[in-house]
Amino acid sequence: MITRDECRLVQASFAELEPTSNVVAATFYARLFELHPNLAPLFKTDMQLQGEKFMEKLAVAVMGLEDLESIAPLVETLGRSHARYGVRPVHYAAVREAILWALADRLGAGFNAELQRAWGAAFDTISIAMLQASEGHAEA
């Protein structure tokens, strides 16, 4: 579970990233597909649009980290829709790896061990809720 201090670290670093959110998203997806090319077919939309949607949802999640109930409907909806798109629980580890790499790439030396742990806790907190919501909603 994420702590209040970790929430604040994540929120502050995300604010730094917002002006280059399109680059963050592109870097994230490039790394994801580099590490796991088998995931690329799950994305059937324009990747620039996909990146914009990703960063919009991430912004809402990041801003709501201190009040998880406020973002529960969004997170649960995302979990169910991702399951319908073919995202499996094992894919979350790949996404975690790619997002932490993209953050390190964009934040440089500022992405120290403490910030990496905070972002890892944020990702884990959100992904656990998404996975719980996705149970029973996968494609048959």
Report on this model:
- With 140 residues, this protein is mainly alpha-helical.
- It has one domain: Globins (Globin-like), CATH 1.10.490.10.
- The chain is built from six helices and no strands.
- It has helices at 4-17, 21-35, 47-63, 68-85, 89-107, 113-134.
- Helix 5 runs antiparallel to helix 6.
- It is globular.
- The N and C termini lie far apart (32 Å).
- The mean pLDDT is 92.
Describe the structure in brief.
By secondary structure, the protein is an all-alpha fold. The chain is built from 6 helices and no strands. Helix 4 packs across helix 6.
CATH superfamily: Globins
Structural class: mainly alpha
Query: What's the CATH class label?
Result: Mainly Alpha
Helix share, percent: over 70%
- Counting structural domains, the number is 1
Rg over CA atoms: 14 Å
CATH architecture name: Orthogonal Bundle
Proportion of strand residues: under 5%
Secondary-structure blueprint:
Blueprint: H1 4-17, H2 21-35, H3 47-63, H4 68-85, H5 89-107, H6 113-134
List keywords for this structure.
single chain; 140 residues; mainly alpha; Globin-like; 6 helices
